[in-house]
Give the backbone structure.
Amino acid sequence: MSYPILKSGYDKLVAELEALKSHRQVLSKAIGTAREHGDLRENAEYHAAKEQQGMEEAKISQLEGKIANSSIIDPSKNGKDKVYFGSTFVVFEIATEKELTFTIVSEDEVDLTKGMISNQSPLGRAFLAKSVGDLVSIQTPNAIREFEVASIN
């Protein structure tokens, strides 16, 4: 299954993978040092290092899978007729009369402070394939929020 991602997000995943792989040697040494401290059944340092190693190996496996299945999306090739993955767009929230700017990205690129929302989130899914002027209603825990797509950049 293809994993859509922007180039910047892809580069971030690759850097994180390289950092985790280089940290393997540090963990291996920590495990070796802890092993030298005696009885492994009661050696908290050893168990903590092994647990850390297991979590990092799982993360490495996850990142390798995402990278192998990545499909880098170039938002400059998106049309401005609809909201696509990678699109930056402005919406008008009807109840608050505020304009909000969002960009649709992968789950690894989400940064709500910058308006970067996941294509898998309810908000992101609701805006995909919408055009300027389309109304979008989203059910939140407290209310239904209504937006109008104002522009697509």
User: Anything to note?
Assistant: The first strand starts at residue 3 and ends at 6. The beta strands are 3-6, 70-73, 88-93, 98-105, 116-118, 135-139, 144-152. The chain has a mean pLDDT of 92. DSSP finds three helices and seven strands in the chain.
